[in-house]
Automatic annotation (TrEMBL):
It holds the Pfam family DUF2071. This is DUF2071 domain-containing protein. Gene3D superfamilies: Acetoacetate decarboxylase-like. SUPFAM superfamilies: Acetoacetate decarboxylase-like. InterPro entries: ADC_dom_sf (IPR023375), DUF2071 (IPR018644).
Length: 240
């Protein structure tokens, strides 16, 4: 994908861990808005939990602001097809540690952000992520410890590895209408990773059954991104 010329936001996603589980498409489909269908293969669709550190968050015409522009975030997402046949992601939830970021994302793109107490700590090759949503009756949270290893040789990365980590479109519903937002980033440098401990109820809070089995895991030092302007599904995007 060509780099987005007119960006709404610039961000860097650092210390990323990708956890993915397979789900029956019929468990995911009822949770999607009208117009989206699970991007399923053999009746199965992937659901991902991605904790990371957001850095350098800013509009393209402003410099980053200390504290406000850097914070932990964790999203829960799945992979979908739009009514135009386009592939992309749909977020069940996005937890963030900065209230202004939560309010802005909900107001502008109607993304399901939640304000949460969050932390991200590293000790050598081990990273620990923690999160707990604020002011929600049922609550939701997670604790993840993961050990990151060496980069994957390019020859070992297959179609699924690229599919789960290289998505350039998100879908959301704004004012009752299905919208897309394009996201540009360079290719991820993917590392091997191993889960040491995982406790989470983000999937349950989203209305999903508990995941079965160990997740497929990737890690990455991160990428710089450019977030495009929202547009109605079917309208052309502006790129360089």
């Amino acid at each position: 994908m060509a780099e987005i010329r007119t960006a709404m936001m610039i961000q860097s996603w650092r210390r990323m861990t990708f956890l993915h589980w397979r789900y029956p498409a019929e468990a995911v489909a009822p949770l999607l808005p009208e117009g989206l269908t699970p991007d399923a293969e053999d009746g199965q669709v992937w659901v991902g939990m991605l904790p990371f550190l957001m850095e350098g968050v800013r509009p393209p015409w402003l410099p980053p602001v200390p504290w406000l522009s850097a914070f932990p975030e964790t999203n829960l997402r799945t992979y979908v097809r739009g009514p135009d046949g386009g592939a992309g992601i749909f977020f069940f939830s996005l937890d963030a540690a900065r209230l202004p970021a939560v309010v802005t994302a909900r107001a502008t793109l109607n993304l399901p952000y939640r304000w949460a107490r969050m932390s991200l700590r590293t000790d050598g090759d081990v990273t620990e992520y923690r999160g707990s949503r604020r002011y929600e009756p049922r609550g939701a949270g997670y604790r993840l410890r993961v050990r990151t290893g060496a980069p994957f040789p390019a020859a070992e990365l297959g179609r699924i590895d690229h599919y789960l980590t290289t998505q350039y479109r998100l879908y959301t519903v704004v004012g009752g209408r299905l919208m897309t937002v394009d996201v540009w980033h360079p290719p991820w440098v993917l590392h091997r990773a191993h889960v040491l401990d995982l406790q989470q109820d983000l999937t349950a809070a989203a209305g999903l059954p508990a995941p079965h089995g160990a997740p497929l895991v990737h890690a990455s030092p991160g990428v710089r991104t450019r977030i495009g302007l929202p547009r109605l599904v079917g309208l052309p995007r502006a790129v360089s």
